[in-house]
Amino acid sequence: MSTQASPLDKPLKLEDLLQRNIWDVDEDPHIEIPMDDQEGLRKRALVHLCPAGCYTMIGDKVLFSYEGCFECGLCRVITPEDKIRWEYPKSGKGIQYRFT
Amino acid sequence: MDGVPGKFDVVVVGAGPAGSAAAYLLAKAGFKVLILERGRGAGSKELFGGKVYAPPLRDVWPGLDKEAPIHRWVTRERISFVRGSRVATIEYSLGRRVGFTTYLPELAKWMSDKAVEAGAVLVDEVRVDEIVVRDGRIVGVRSGPDTVEADVVVDAEGVNRLLLERLGLVERLNPSYVALGVKEVLNVGKGTIEERFALPKGEGLAWMVAGDVTAGIPGGGFIYTMKDTIAIGLVLHIGKAMEKAEAGQINKHVSRILEEFRLHPYFKQFWKDADVMEYGAHMTIEGGLRMVPKRLYAPGLVIVGDAAGLLLNTGYTVRGVDFAVASGRIAAEAIIEAFNRGGPTEENLRLYEERLKESFVWRELVRHRWIGRGMEDECYFTSMPGVLIRILEKLYEADYEEPTLIDALLESLAEEDISLTKLIMKLGSVVSKL
Question: Do A95 and B172 touch (CB under 8 A)?
């Protein structure tokens, strides 16, 4: 019998991990960061530590997309108050945990 | 909040363990209780490690053992120290059943169902935007354009204290007081857990992991056996992780650090061929007491659970759900007593804080108050496990001549760049605080 290499034997990409989850995405973003003046944003920390990978670098700007957010609050904690608007999603939207 | 009658005795914000415990006991005592939950049904925003201490839950729900969604009673505890592929493990086989594993969304749903059965009204998909203050006292909560009035608001909003911050009762969260929990749930197939972990039928395992699985960030790993799945994850100190990431010392995404733990050559054998069912994260409290608000009550308000900073992570045990439930119970009892004394005035609600501070929750937090600062010390997380593994490596992996124990210790310390004096001081400071 030969054993076949499974994709699970290698680190799964974040996109593949996120595919395991269920979201009901809100129409409006519940989190916003400024695109113009990003002074004071901890970009490297946001990019590496946001567990859902919502923060990505485009050139020297950090871009936020709210769709796959876990609503954990990490970005809020490491960002100056005046550089982030942070709410929970409305109307039961957002991440729908099942087995956690 | 259409269709919700305008005035309640108590409004509980958040249908987590703390909120549902308080709501259940208050409803049972005849209070008109409304629970507002931002998620779709109770539990849909809940994520934790995997284990719950049962005794404080039985105080609220005596039928817990028979009725609750218990996956496995934990009868084995393991602690492992890791450096690279090398692992040293201590296993303890318990003499009795104290804690069980479960999915928190399931358990929270059960708890809120209990509150509803007792007569509480649960309205989900409602995000509370503000705790409403009028003439110096809290009179209700607001969600969008709707306001619900209540004699008492129980704040069980969880670790992200948006409402308490807006009220000015707590400061913004300090990154050093919190940790990020990232978790994967692995589907190993029905009926295989016992064989994989050599467990008696129906029994479970809780496993803490210290060492370089966290890629140098203070924190640790965990493994819990569920009914037919395994929960694995990492708890990472946010303040330190932030500093390291900003200094360019973390060059991979946090999910990759977790994936490397899943694929660790020693640990991966336990979940061979298992697929990842879910991946998630939640913030948790790092250090006992530092996150507790200066006051746990105000006129018309009590604060319970994670919002009150009531969680203890000693490194070998994590007490969150049971502390939350206990604080919910104590809050309910104090509110009942306050009404008997004439109403939920500031003076009467002070009972909650007094009783909480006489309870096991507070004694535990005080007893282990040094833990928070210890959590920031990388020495305990990386260097100490490193020293232990290096000693064992020298003793067990010698080709011809093995060193004496003292030589192995001294060489290992030198390799981890720790002096003997520092080791003695570090160990001494742990022992003196235990």
Answer: no
Mean pLDDT by 10 residues, chain B (434 residues): 72 98 98 98 97 98 98 97 96 96 98 98 98 96 96 98 97 95 96 96 96 94 98 97 97 97 98 97 88 96 98 88 98 97 95 98 89 69 88 94 93 89 78 65
Q: Inspect the interface and report whether the beta carbons of B260 and A11 lie closer than 8 Å.
A: yes
Q: Does A95 touch chain B (CB under 8 A)?
A: yes
pLDDT digit string, tens, across residues A20-65: 999 999 999 999 999 999 999 999 999 999 999 999 999 999 999 9
Length of chain A: 100
Question: A96 to chain B: which residues are within 8 Å by CB?
Answer: 39-40, 44
Burial of B121 (0-12, 13-18, 19+ CB in 10 A): middle
With cut-offs at 50, 70 and 90, classify the pLDDT of residue A8: very high
Q: Closest partner residue to B253 among A6, A24, A53, by Cβ?
A: A53
Judge if B165 and B237 occupy the same domain. Answer: no
Number of domains making up chain B? 3
CATH number for the domain spanning B320: value is 3.50.50.60
The number of distinct structural domains making up chain A is 1
A 2-21 residues inside an 8 A Cβ radius of B: 6, 8-12, 14, 17-18, 20-21
Helices (H), chain A: 14-18, 43-49, 74-78
Rounded to two decimals, the pTM is 0.95
Q: How far is CA B272 from CA B49, B121, B141, B193, B213, in A?
A: 21, 45, 49, 11, 19
CA nearest to B278 within chain A:
A20
Which helix (H) or strand (E) segment holds residue B92: the answer is strand B86-93
Query: CA-nearest residue of chain B to A22?
Result: B278
Q: Do A100 and B160 touch (CB under 8 A)?
A: no
Residues of A in contact with B182 (CB under 8 A): 51
Residue B59 lies in a domain: no
Contacts of B50 (CB under 8 A, 6+ apart): B101, B102, B206, B222, B224, B226, B231
